[in-house]
Design a protein that fits this description.
The complex is a heterodimer.
Chain A: E1 23-27, H1 34-42, H2 63-67, E2 70-74, H3 86-96, H4 101-115, H5 130-141, E3 148-152, H6 160-176, E4 180-184, H7 188-194, E5 197-202, E6 205-211, H8 212-219, E7 222-229, E8 242-248, E9 251-257, H9 263-273, E10 276-282, H10 286-296, H11 300-311
Parallel strand pairs in A: 1-4, 1-5, 2-3, 3-4
Antiparallel strand pairs in A: 5-6, 7-9, 7-10, 8-9
Chain B: H1 3-24, H2 26-53, H3 62-79, H4 88-93, H5 98-101, H6 107-114, H7 119-134, H8 138-164, H9 172-187, H10 197-202, H11 208-211, H12 213-221, H13 225-248
Helix pairs in contact in B: 2-3, 2-7, 3-7, 3-8, 3-12, 8-9, 8-12, 8-13, 12-13
The chains are: A alpha/beta, B mainly alpha.
Chain lengths: 312, 263
Protein backbone atom coordinates (compact mmCIF):
# COMPACT_ATOMS: atom_id res chain seq x y z
CA UNK A 1 0.00 0.00 0.00
CA UNK A 2 1.37 3.45 -0.88
CA UNK A 3 0.18 6.83 0.21
CA UNK A 4 -0.41 9.24 -2.63
CA UNK A 5 0.11 12.92 -2.14
CA UNK A 6 -2.16 15.38 -3.81
CA UNK A 7 -1.79 19.13 -3.57
CA UNK A 8 -5.13 20.90 -3.49
CA UNK A 9 -5.13 24.62 -4.16
CA UNK A 10 -7.84 25.97 -1.89
CA UNK A 11 -7.71 29.44 -3.45
CA UNK A 12 -6.12 30.30 -6.81
CA UNK A 13 -5.95 33.23 -9.23
CA UNK A 14 -7.92 35.38 -6.83
CA UNK A 15 -7.45 39.12 -7.12
CA UNK A 16 -9.74 41.79 -5.77
CA UNK A 17 -9.77 45.11 -3.95
CA UNK A 18 -12.20 46.37 -1.32
CA UNK A 19 -12.62 50.10 -0.72
CA UNK A 20 -12.82 51.24 2.94
CA UNK A 21 -16.34 51.33 4.35
CA UNK A 22 -17.77 48.84 1.86
CA UNK A 23 -19.62 45.66 2.76
CA UNK A 24 -18.53 42.70 0.66
CA UNK A 25 -20.08 39.25 0.62
CA UNK A 26 -18.00 36.21 -0.25
CA UNK A 27 -20.33 33.52 -1.38
CA UNK A 28 -19.92 30.08 -2.82
CA UNK A 29 -20.80 26.45 -2.18
CA UNK A 30 -19.14 24.51 0.65
CA UNK A 31 -15.43 24.05 -0.03
CA UNK A 32 -15.32 27.00 -2.46
CA UNK A 33 -12.50 28.65 -0.50
CA UNK A 34 -14.42 31.40 1.32
CA UNK A 35 -13.11 30.62 4.81
CA UNK A 36 -9.59 30.06 3.48
CA UNK A 37 -9.71 33.47 1.82
CA UNK A 38 -10.79 35.10 5.10
CA UNK A 39 -8.02 33.29 6.96
CA UNK A 40 -5.50 34.53 4.40
CA UNK A 41 -6.78 38.09 4.81
CA UNK A 42 -6.51 37.83 8.61
CA UNK A 43 -2.96 36.47 8.46
CA UNK A 44 -3.78 33.05 9.93
CA UNK A 45 -2.57 31.37 6.76
CA UNK A 46 0.27 32.39 4.51
CA UNK A 47 -0.25 32.20 0.75
CA UNK A 48 2.06 29.84 -1.14
CA UNK A 49 2.13 32.35 -4.03
CA UNK A 50 1.01 35.90 -4.60
CA UNK A 51 0.65 38.82 -2.21
CA UNK A 52 -2.00 40.27 0.06
CA UNK A 53 -2.22 43.77 1.52
CA UNK A 54 -4.72 44.62 4.22
CA UNK A 55 -4.65 48.24 5.41
CA UNK A 56 -1.25 48.49 3.75
CA UNK A 57 0.16 45.56 5.70
CA UNK A 58 1.14 42.00 4.83
CA UNK A 59 -1.34 40.05 6.98
CA UNK A 60 0.94 37.08 7.66
CA UNK A 61 4.13 39.04 8.38
CA UNK A 62 2.48 41.94 10.24
CA UNK A 63 -0.16 39.82 11.91
CA UNK A 64 0.24 41.22 15.41
CA UNK A 65 0.21 44.84 14.18
CA UNK A 66 -2.75 44.21 11.90
CA UNK A 67 -4.69 42.50 14.71
CA UNK A 68 -5.23 45.91 16.39
CA UNK A 69 -7.16 47.11 13.33
CA UNK A 70 -9.14 44.08 12.26
CA UNK A 71 -11.47 41.66 13.95
CA UNK A 72 -13.28 38.50 13.11
CA UNK A 73 -16.33 36.55 14.09
CA UNK A 74 -16.44 32.91 13.12
CA UNK A 75 -19.96 31.61 13.64
CA UNK A 76 -18.60 28.16 14.40
CA UNK A 77 -16.10 29.39 16.99
CA UNK A 78 -16.57 31.38 20.14
CA UNK A 79 -14.16 33.63 21.97
CA UNK A 80 -16.41 34.01 24.99
CA UNK A 81 -15.54 32.14 28.18
CA UNK A 82 -18.27 29.57 28.32
CA UNK A 83 -18.62 29.31 32.11
CA UNK A 84 -18.22 33.02 32.86
CA UNK A 85 -20.35 36.09 32.11
CA UNK A 86 -19.60 38.03 28.89
CA UNK A 87 -18.34 41.01 30.92
CA UNK A 88 -15.29 38.95 31.98
CA UNK A 89 -14.36 38.24 28.36
CA UNK A 90 -14.77 41.95 27.52
CA UNK A 91 -12.43 42.93 30.37
CA UNK A 92 -9.88 40.32 29.30
CA UNK A 93 -10.04 41.56 25.71
CA UNK A 94 -9.31 45.03 27.05
CA UNK A 95 -5.99 43.68 28.32
CA UNK A 96 -5.30 41.72 25.14
CA UNK A 97 -5.75 44.87 23.02
CA UNK A 98 -4.03 47.27 25.49
CA UNK A 99 -7.11 49.42 25.93
CA UNK A 100 -6.82 51.73 28.93
CA UNK A 101 -9.47 51.42 31.62
CA UNK A 102 -11.34 54.66 30.92
CA UNK A 103 -11.51 53.96 27.20
CA UNK A 104 -12.53 50.34 27.81
CA UNK A 105 -15.36 51.40 30.11
CA UNK A 106 -16.61 53.88 27.52
CA UNK A 107 -16.37 51.33 24.74
CA UNK A 108 -18.17 48.67 26.75
CA UNK A 109 -20.99 51.08 27.58
CA UNK A 110 -21.43 51.85 23.88
CA UNK A 111 -21.46 48.19 22.89
CA UNK A 112 -23.82 47.18 25.70
CA UNK A 113 -26.29 49.82 24.47
CA UNK A 114 -25.81 49.03 20.79
CA UNK A 115 -26.31 45.29 21.22
CA UNK A 116 -28.76 45.59 24.12
CA UNK A 117 -26.68 43.33 26.36
CA UNK A 118 -27.46 44.83 29.77
CA UNK A 119 -29.97 42.15 30.81
CA UNK A 120 -27.50 39.27 30.46
CA UNK A 121 -24.08 40.89 30.76
CA UNK A 122 -23.51 39.23 34.14
CA UNK A 123 -24.96 35.82 33.28
CA UNK A 124 -22.65 32.92 32.42
CA UNK A 125 -22.38 32.45 28.65
CA UNK A 126 -23.55 28.85 28.95
CA UNK A 127 -26.96 30.13 30.08
CA UNK A 128 -27.45 32.48 27.11
CA UNK A 129 -29.50 31.74 24.02
CA UNK A 130 -27.64 31.41 20.72
CA UNK A 131 -28.90 34.84 19.64
CA UNK A 132 -27.73 36.50 22.86
CA UNK A 133 -24.39 34.73 22.57
CA UNK A 134 -23.88 35.88 19.01
CA UNK A 135 -24.64 39.48 19.99
CA UNK A 136 -22.01 39.20 22.74
CA UNK A 137 -19.65 37.57 20.26
CA UNK A 138 -19.91 40.46 17.80
CA UNK A 139 -19.69 43.02 20.61
CA UNK A 140 -16.50 41.30 21.82
CA UNK A 141 -15.09 41.49 18.30
CA UNK A 142 -15.69 45.24 18.24
CA UNK A 143 -14.15 46.10 21.59
CA UNK A 144 -10.97 47.50 20.02
CA UNK A 145 -12.78 49.56 17.38
CA UNK A 146 -11.57 47.63 14.33
CA UNK A 147 -11.55 49.14 10.86
CA UNK A 148 -12.35 45.83 9.18
CA UNK A 149 -14.67 43.14 10.45
CA UNK A 150 -14.45 39.65 8.98
CA UNK A 151 -17.54 37.55 9.53
CA UNK A 152 -17.65 33.89 8.65
CA UNK A 153 -21.23 32.60 8.84
CA UNK A 154 -22.20 34.92 11.71
CA UNK A 155 -25.88 34.02 11.61
CA UNK A 156 -25.47 30.25 11.49
CA UNK A 157 -28.14 28.59 13.62
CA UNK A 158 -29.91 31.83 14.59
CA UNK A 159 -33.68 32.22 14.47
CA UNK A 160 -35.30 34.87 12.25
CA UNK A 161 -35.54 37.54 14.97
CA UNK A 162 -31.99 37.08 16.25
CA UNK A 163 -30.63 37.02 12.70
CA UNK A 164 -32.47 40.18 11.81
CA UNK A 165 -31.12 41.96 14.87
CA UNK A 166 -27.53 40.91 14.16
CA UNK A 167 -27.77 42.02 10.52
CA UNK A 168 -29.35 45.38 11.50
CA UNK A 169 -26.51 46.10 13.91
CA UNK A 170 -23.87 45.14 11.36
CA UNK A 171 -25.53 47.35 8.77
CA UNK A 172 -25.56 50.22 11.20
CA UNK A 173 -21.86 49.69 11.96
CA UNK A 174 -21.05 49.64 8.29
CA UNK A 175 -23.08 52.70 7.37
CA UNK A 176 -22.62 54.94 10.40
CA UNK A 177 -19.21 53.92 11.70
CA UNK A 178 -17.72 53.13 8.32
CA UNK A 179 -16.50 49.69 9.41
CA UNK A 180 -15.54 47.64 6.36
CA UNK A 181 -17.35 44.32 6.43
CA UNK A 182 -16.28 41.16 4.68
CA UNK A 183 -18.88 38.49 5.15
CA UNK A 184 -19.36 34.89 4.16
CA UNK A 185 -22.82 33.45 4.50
CA UNK A 186 -25.07 30.93 2.89
CA UNK A 187 -28.05 33.09 3.71
CA UNK A 188 -28.85 35.24 0.72
CA UNK A 189 -31.25 37.33 2.80
CA UNK A 190 -28.35 38.42 5.06
CA UNK A 191 -26.18 39.18 2.06
CA UNK A 192 -28.81 41.27 0.32
CA UNK A 193 -29.62 43.29 3.40
CA UNK A 194 -26.06 43.95 4.41
CA UNK A 195 -23.74 43.94 1.43
CA UNK A 196 -23.29 46.14 -1.61
CA UNK A 197 -20.71 44.01 -3.37
CA UNK A 198 -20.41 40.31 -3.90
CA UNK A 199 -17.69 37.90 -4.94
CA UNK A 200 -18.83 34.45 -5.95
CA UNK A 201 -16.20 31.75 -5.45
CA UNK A 202 -16.24 28.25 -6.76
CA UNK A 203 -13.45 25.68 -6.45
CA UNK A 204 -11.10 28.37 -5.20
CA UNK A 205 -11.58 30.78 -8.11
CA UNK A 206 -13.58 33.96 -8.46
CA UNK A 207 -16.53 33.14 -10.65
CA UNK A 208 -18.16 36.54 -10.42
CA UNK A 209 -17.30 39.88 -8.85
CA UNK A 210 -20.11 42.37 -8.95
CA UNK A 211 -22.31 44.89 -7.23
CA UNK A 212 -25.34 43.04 -5.86
CA UNK A 213 -27.79 45.35 -7.64
CA UNK A 214 -25.93 44.87 -10.91
CA UNK A 215 -25.89 41.14 -10.39
CA UNK A 216 -29.64 41.07 -9.91
CA UNK A 217 -30.12 43.11 -13.05
CA UNK A 218 -27.78 41.06 -15.19
CA UNK A 219 -28.96 37.66 -14.07
CA UNK A 220 -32.70 38.12 -13.95
CA UNK A 221 -34.55 36.75 -16.88
CA UNK A 222 -37.85 36.43 -15.04
CA UNK A 223 -40.28 38.40 -12.89
CA UNK A 224 -42.91 37.02 -10.55
CA UNK A 225 -46.37 38.60 -10.74
CA UNK A 226 -48.78 37.91 -7.89
CA UNK A 227 -52.43 38.78 -8.59
CA UNK A 228 -55.35 38.72 -6.21
CA UNK A 229 -58.58 38.64 -8.19
CA UNK A 230 -61.66 40.46 -6.85
CA UNK A 231 -64.16 37.75 -7.72
CA UNK A 232 -64.36 34.62 -9.82
CA UNK A 233 -61.97 34.76 -12.73
CA UNK A 234 -62.26 32.93 -15.98
CA UNK A 235 -59.38 30.81 -17.22
CA UNK A 236 -56.50 33.16 -17.79
CA UNK A 237 -55.56 33.76 -21.36
CA UNK A 238 -51.80 33.89 -20.97
CA UNK A 239 -49.45 35.04 -23.70
CA UNK A 240 -46.30 33.03 -24.59
CA UNK A 241 -43.50 33.25 -21.98
CA UNK A 242 -45.92 33.45 -19.03
CA UNK A 243 -46.77 30.48 -16.84
CA UNK A 244 -48.73 29.89 -13.64
CA UNK A 245 -46.44 28.73 -10.85
CA UNK A 246 -48.91 28.77 -7.94
CA UNK A 247 -52.66 29.03 -7.50
CA UNK A 248 -54.39 29.44 -4.14
CA UNK A 249 -58.04 30.58 -4.18
CA UNK A 250 -58.27 34.05 -5.68
CA UNK A 251 -54.42 34.44 -5.63
CA UNK A 252 -52.42 33.39 -8.67
CA UNK A 253 -48.64 33.58 -9.07
CA UNK A 254 -47.21 33.94 -12.56
CA UNK A 255 -43.67 33.77 -13.85
CA UNK A 256 -42.82 35.98 -16.80
CA UNK A 257 -39.84 35.24 -19.02
CA UNK A 258 -38.51 38.73 -19.78
CA UNK A 259 -36.71 37.61 -22.91
CA UNK A 260 -40.08 36.70 -24.46
CA UNK A 261 -42.58 38.96 -22.77
CA UNK A 262 -42.70 42.38 -21.12
CA UNK A 263 -44.03 42.26 -17.54
CA UNK A 264 -45.96 45.54 -17.86
CA UNK A 265 -47.82 44.27 -20.90
CA UNK A 266 -48.83 41.10 -19.05
CA UNK A 267 -50.16 43.17 -16.15
CA UNK A 268 -52.12 45.52 -18.47
CA UNK A 269 -53.66 42.57 -20.28
CA UNK A 270 -54.78 40.80 -17.07
CA UNK A 271 -56.17 44.03 -15.55
CA UNK A 272 -58.12 44.76 -18.77
CA UNK A 273 -59.70 41.30 -18.81
CA UNK A 274 -60.37 40.74 -15.07
CA UNK A 275 -61.42 42.49 -11.91
CA UNK A 276 -58.24 42.66 -9.81
CA UNK A 277 -58.03 43.54 -6.08
CA UNK A 278 -54.23 43.59 -5.71
CA UNK A 279 -51.21 43.05 -7.88
CA UNK A 280 -47.46 42.87 -7.07
CA UNK A 281 -44.40 42.39 -9.25
CA UNK A 282 -41.35 40.83 -7.65
CA UNK A 283 -37.90 39.68 -8.59
CA UNK A 284 -37.20 36.01 -8.02
CA UNK A 285 -35.14 35.35 -4.86
CA UNK A 286 -31.40 36.07 -5.01
CA UNK A 287 -30.94 32.47 -4.04
CA UNK A 288 -32.05 31.29 -7.45
CA UNK A 289 -29.46 33.50 -9.16
CA UNK A 290 -26.70 32.22 -6.91
CA UNK A 291 -27.77 28.67 -7.51
CA UNK A 292 -27.65 29.38 -11.22
CA UNK A 293 -24.12 30.83 -10.93
CA UNK A 294 -22.87 27.87 -8.87
CA UNK A 295 -24.25 25.41 -11.36
CA UNK A 296 -22.94 27.24 -14.40
CA UNK A 297 -19.46 27.68 -12.85
CA UNK A 298 -16.91 29.74 -14.73
CA UNK A 299 -19.09 31.02 -17.55
CA UNK A 300 -21.19 32.99 -15.06
CA UNK A 301 -19.16 36.13 -15.52
CA UNK A 302 -19.41 35.90 -19.28
CA UNK A 303 -23.14 35.27 -19.07
CA UNK A 304 -23.61 38.33 -16.89
CA UNK A 305 -21.63 40.36 -19.41
CA UNK A 306 -23.74 39.08 -22.29
CA UNK A 307 -26.95 39.87 -20.45
CA UNK A 308 -25.68 43.33 -19.64
CA UNK A 309 -25.05 43.87 -23.35
CA UNK A 310 -28.51 42.57 -24.27
CA UNK A 311 -30.20 44.78 -21.64
CA UNK A 312 -28.08 47.78 -22.56
CA UNK B 1 3.46 50.68 29.32
CA UNK B 2 6.53 48.59 28.50
CA UNK B 3 6.21 45.30 26.63
CA UNK B 4 7.02 43.34 29.80
CA UNK B 5 4.37 45.33 31.68
CA UNK B 6 1.78 44.61 28.99
CA UNK B 7 2.51 40.89 29.04
CA UNK B 8 2.44 40.87 32.84
CA UNK B 9 -0.95 42.61 32.65
CA UNK B 10 -2.16 39.95 30.24
CA UNK B 11 -0.89 37.22 32.56
CA UNK B 12 -2.74 38.78 35.49
CA UNK B 13 -5.88 39.09 33.37
CA UNK B 14 -5.78 35.37 32.60
CA UNK B 15 -4.91 34.55 36.22
CA UNK B 16 -8.03 36.42 37.31
CA UNK B 17 -10.33 34.82 34.76
CA UNK B 18 -8.99 31.33 35.46
CA UNK B 19 -9.35 31.85 39.21
CA UNK B 20 -12.95 32.93 38.59
CA UNK B 21 -13.50 29.81 36.50
CA UNK B 22 -12.06 27.69 39.32
CA UNK B 23 -14.45 29.24 41.85
CA UNK B 24 -17.34 28.53 39.48
CA UNK B 25 -16.61 24.82 39.93
CA UNK B 26 -15.35 24.67 43.51
CA UNK B 27 -16.71 21.23 44.32
CA UNK B 28 -15.30 19.39 41.31
CA UNK B 29 -11.94 21.13 41.79
CA UNK B 30 -11.84 20.07 45.43
CA UNK B 31 -12.72 16.49 44.52
CA UNK B 32 -9.89 16.46 41.95
CA UNK B 33 -7.50 17.83 44.58
CA UNK B 34 -8.58 15.25 47.12
CA UNK B 35 -8.17 12.44 44.54
CA UNK B 36 -4.69 13.58 43.67
CA UNK B 37 -3.63 13.80 47.31
CA UNK B 38 -5.04 10.35 47.99
CA UNK B 39 -3.08 8.97 45.04
CA UNK B 40 0.11 10.51 46.45
CA UNK B 41 -0.63 9.15 49.91
CA UNK B 42 -1.03 5.59 48.57
CA UNK B 43 2.28 5.93 46.69
CA UNK B 44 4.07 7.20 49.80
CA UNK B 45 2.62 4.49 52.02
CA UNK B 46 3.87 1.87 49.56
CA UNK B 47 7.45 3.25 49.66
CA UNK B 48 7.29 3.79 53.40
CA UNK B 49 6.47 0.10 53.88
CA UNK B 50 9.21 -0.79 51.40
CA UNK B 51 11.89 1.27 53.14
CA UNK B 52 10.81 -0.06 56.54
CA UNK B 53 11.83 -3.47 55.30
CA UNK B 54 14.90 -2.32 53.33
CA UNK B 55 15.93 0.97 54.99
CA UNK B 56 18.86 1.73 52.72
CA UNK B 57 19.18 1.06 49.00
CA UNK B 58 22.40 2.36 47.44
CA UNK B 59 22.48 4.89 50.31
CA UNK B 60 19.02 6.21 49.43
CA UNK B 61 16.28 6.34 52.01
CA UNK B 62 12.61 7.10 52.27
CA UNK B 63 13.31 10.79 52.82
CA UNK B 64 14.95 11.03 49.37
CA UNK B 65 12.01 9.39 47.67
CA UNK B 66 9.63 11.69 49.51
CA UNK B 67 11.70 14.62 48.23
CA UNK B 68 11.58 13.59 44.57
CA UNK B 69 7.83 13.10 44.82
CA UNK B 70 7.42 16.53 46.43
CA UNK B 71 9.68 18.23 43.83
CA UNK B 72 7.76 16.56 40.99
CA UNK B 73 4.38 17.60 42.38
CA UNK B 74 5.42 21.22 42.90
CA UNK B 75 6.99 21.26 39.41
CA UNK B 76 3.83 19.84 37.81
CA UNK B 77 1.74 22.43 39.64
CA UNK B 78 3.92 25.20 38.21
CA UNK B 79 3.54 23.70 34.72
CA UNK B 80 -0.23 23.78 35.31
CA UNK B 81 -0.04 27.60 35.26
CA UNK B 82 0.76 27.13 31.56
CA UNK B 83 -1.71 24.30 31.23
CA UNK B 84 -2.19 24.59 27.49
CA UNK B 85 1.36 23.28 27.07
CA UNK B 86 -0.30 19.86 27.41
CA UNK B 87 -2.73 20.68 24.58
CA UNK B 88 -0.54 22.35 21.94
CA UNK B 89 -0.81 19.51 19.45
CA UNK B 90 -4.60 19.38 19.85
CA UNK B 91 -4.90 23.17 19.52
CA UNK B 92 -2.91 23.01 16.29
CA UNK B 93 -4.71 20.07 14.74
CA UNK B 94 -8.20 21.24 15.61
CA UNK B 95 -7.50 24.75 14.32
CA UNK B 96 -8.09 26.31 17.75
CA UNK B 97 -4.73 28.04 17.43
CA UNK B 98 -6.48 30.56 15.16
CA UNK B 99 -7.84 32.42 18.16
CA UNK B 100 -4.33 33.26 19.36
CA UNK B 101 -3.08 34.10 15.89
CA UNK B 102 -5.83 36.69 15.53
CA UNK B 103 -4.76 38.57 18.63
CA UNK B 104 -2.01 41.20 18.81
CA UNK B 105 0.12 39.18 21.24
CA UNK B 106 2.82 36.59 20.92
CA UNK B 107 0.68 33.59 19.99
CA UNK B 108 2.77 31.05 21.91
CA UNK B 109 2.90 33.01 25.17
CA UNK B 110 -0.78 33.87 24.84
CA UNK B 111 -1.91 30.29 24.33
CA UNK B 112 0.30 29.00 27.15
CA UNK B 113 -1.19 31.32 29.76
CA UNK B 114 -4.77 31.09 28.51
CA UNK B 115 -5.54 27.97 30.55
CA UNK B 116 -4.37 27.53 34.12
CA UNK B 117 -5.16 24.67 36.46
CA UNK B 118 -4.85 26.68 39.60
CA UNK B 119 -6.12 23.97 41.93
CA UNK B 120 -2.73 22.29 41.43
CA UNK B 121 -1.10 25.23 43.22
CA UNK B 122 -3.04 24.29 46.37
CA UNK B 123 -1.54 20.81 46.10
CA UNK B 124 1.91 22.32 45.56
CA UNK B 125 1.52 24.32 48.77
CA UNK B 126 0.65 21.14 50.68
CA UNK B 127 3.80 19.46 49.30
CA UNK B 128 5.96 22.45 50.17
CA UNK B 129 4.67 22.46 53.74
CA UNK B 130 5.26 18.69 53.95
CA UNK B 131 8.86 19.18 52.81
CA UNK B 132 9.41 21.95 55.36
CA UNK B 133 8.15 19.62 58.10
CA UNK B 134 10.47 16.88 56.80
CA UNK B 135 13.52 19.11 56.54
CA UNK B 136 13.05 22.36 58.45
CA UNK B 137 16.24 24.09 57.23
CA UNK B 138 16.14 27.31 55.21
CA UNK B 139 18.90 26.40 52.67
CA UNK B 140 17.16 23.06 51.98
CA UNK B 141 13.81 24.78 51.47
CA UNK B 142 15.35 27.35 49.11
CA UNK B 143 17.12 24.60 47.13
CA UNK B 144 13.85 22.65 47.05
CA UNK B 145 12.05 25.64 45.51
CA UNK B 146 14.86 26.34 43.03
CA UNK B 147 14.93 22.72 41.86
CA UNK B 148 11.14 22.61 41.62
CA UNK B 149 11.13 25.68 39.34
CA UNK B 150 13.93 24.22 37.17
CA UNK B 151 12.16 20.86 36.99
CA UNK B 152 8.98 22.67 35.92
CA UNK B 153 11.00 24.36 33.17
CA UNK B 154 12.33 21.01 31.96
CA UNK B 155 8.87 19.40 31.88
CA UNK B 156 7.49 22.51 30.15
CA UNK B 157 10.23 22.50 27.49
CA UNK B 158 9.76 18.78 26.91
CA UNK B 159 5.99 19.20 26.41
CA UNK B 160 6.50 22.31 24.26
CA UNK B 161 8.77 20.46 21.82
CA UNK B 162 6.48 17.45 21.44
CA UNK B 163 3.35 19.60 21.28
CA UNK B 164 4.83 21.85 18.59
CA UNK B 165 5.70 18.82 16.51
CA UNK B 166 1.93 18.74 15.90
CA UNK B 167 2.55 21.26 13.11
CA UNK B 168 4.61 18.69 11.24
CA UNK B 169 3.28 15.33 12.43
CA UNK B 170 -0.47 15.51 12.25
CA UNK B 171 -0.92 13.15 15.16
CA UNK B 172 1.88 14.13 17.51
CA UNK B 173 -0.42 13.74 20.54
CA UNK B 174 0.26 9.98 20.72
CA UNK B 175 4.07 10.18 20.74
CA UNK B 176 4.04 13.16 23.09
CA UNK B 177 1.70 11.45 25.55
CA UNK B 178 3.74 8.25 25.58
CA UNK B 179 7.01 10.08 26.19
CA UNK B 180 5.42 12.32 28.82
CA UNK B 181 4.06 9.27 30.66
CA UNK B 182 7.54 7.71 30.50
CA UNK B 183 9.03 10.95 31.87
CA UNK B 184 6.65 11.00 34.82
CA UNK B 185 7.04 7.27 35.53
CA UNK B 186 10.85 7.48 35.52
CA UNK B 187 10.69 10.61 37.68
CA UNK B 188 8.71 8.90 40.41
CA UNK B 189 10.88 5.83 40.71
CA UNK B 190 14.25 5.58 42.38
CA UNK B 191 16.13 6.02 39.10
CA UNK B 192 19.55 6.12 40.77
CA UNK B 193 19.53 2.36 40.35
CA UNK B 194 19.97 2.78 36.58
CA UNK B 195 23.38 2.39 35.03
CA UNK B 196 24.89 2.67 31.52
CA UNK B 197 22.50 3.26 28.60
CA UNK B 198 19.48 3.60 30.89
CA UNK B 199 21.21 6.38 32.80
CA UNK B 200 22.09 8.09 29.53
CA UNK B 201 18.42 7.95 28.45
CA UNK B 202 17.12 9.52 31.66
CA UNK B 203 19.43 12.48 31.13
CA UNK B 204 18.59 13.02 27.44
CA UNK B 205 15.54 11.61 25.64
CA UNK B 206 13.44 11.18 28.76
CA UNK B 207 15.08 13.70 31.11
CA UNK B 208 13.63 12.22 34.31
CA UNK B 209 17.09 12.29 35.92
CA UNK B 210 17.00 16.09 36.03
CA UNK B 211 13.64 16.02 37.81
CA UNK B 212 14.39 13.40 40.45
CA UNK B 213 18.07 12.41 40.76
CA UNK B 214 19.46 15.93 40.44
CA UNK B 215 17.21 17.66 43.02
CA UNK B 216 18.15 15.03 45.60
CA UNK B 217 21.86 15.51 44.82
CA UNK B 218 21.49 19.28 45.13
CA UNK B 219 19.34 19.34 48.28
CA UNK B 220 21.09 16.59 50.27
CA UNK B 221 24.64 16.53 48.89
CA UNK B 222 24.86 20.25 47.97
CA UNK B 223 26.01 19.39 44.43
CA UNK B 224 25.53 22.99 43.25
CA UNK B 225 27.00 22.50 39.78
CA UNK B 226 24.02 20.33 38.97
CA UNK B 227 21.81 23.42 39.38
CA UNK B 228 23.55 25.07 36.43
CA UNK B 229 23.40 21.85 34.41
CA UNK B 230 19.66 21.45 34.99
CA UNK B 231 18.99 25.12 34.37
CA UNK B 232 20.93 25.04 31.11
CA UNK B 233 19.12 21.89 30.01
CA UNK B 234 15.74 23.46 30.80
CA UNK B 235 16.59 26.63 28.85
CA UNK B 236 17.80 24.61 25.85
CA UNK B 237 14.59 22.53 25.81
CA UNK B 238 12.40 25.66 25.93
CA UNK B 239 14.40 27.47 23.25
CA UNK B 240 14.13 24.42 20.98
CA UNK B 241 10.40 24.29 21.72
CA UNK B 242 9.95 27.97 20.77
CA UNK B 243 11.92 27.47 17.54
CA UNK B 244 9.90 24.37 16.58
CA UNK B 245 6.67 26.27 17.29
CA UNK B 246 7.60 29.36 15.28
CA UNK B 247 8.88 27.27 12.36
CA UNK B 248 5.74 25.18 12.54
CA UNK B 249 3.44 28.19 12.22
CA UNK B 250 4.26 28.28 8.52
CA UNK B 251 2.82 24.80 8.19
CA UNK B 252 -0.36 25.62 10.05
CA UNK B 253 -3.33 24.34 8.08
CA UNK B 254 -6.23 25.24 10.41
CA UNK B 255 -9.32 23.20 10.95
CA UNK B 256 -13.03 23.73 10.96
CA UNK B 257 -14.10 22.06 14.18
CA UNK B 258 -17.34 23.38 15.60
CA UNK B 259 -16.29 24.43 19.10
CA UNK B 260 -17.03 26.75 21.95
CA UNK B 261 -14.13 28.67 23.37
CA UNK B 262 -12.65 26.38 25.96
CA UNK B 263 -8.90 26.66 25.42
Amino acid sequence: MRRERQVIEAVKDVSFKVEPGRALALIGPNGAGKSTLIKLLCGILSPTRGSIRVLGMDPFKDRSKLAYHISSVFGQRSQLWYHLPPIDTFLLLGRIYDIDRVELKKRMKELVELFDLSSFLYQPVRKLSLGQRMRCEIAAALIHNPKILFLDEPTIGLDVVARSMVIDILKDLNQRKNVTIILTSHDTGDIERLCEDVIVLNEGRIVLESNIREMRKNFFHTKIIEIEFAGQHADLDLPPGVSVIERSGPVVKLEVNLKVQDANEVVSRIVAQNSVRDITIQDPPLESIIQHIYLSGDPAGREAEQNAQIDG
Amino acid sequence: MSTVGKYLGLFLGYLYINAKGLLEYKVSSLIALFGSLLNSAIWLVFWWVFFKRFPNISEWQFVHLFTIWAVLNVALALVSVFYNVYNISELINEGKLEYYLLKPRNALFHLLIARMRLVDLVEATIWLISFIILKPELPAVILFLVMSVISAGIIHGFLLIFGSLGFFLKSADGIGTELYNALITFSTYPNWIFRGAAKWIIFTVIPAGFISYVPVQVIYNRAYLWILGSLGFGIVLNVIGCVVFSRGLKYFETGNTFVLRAD
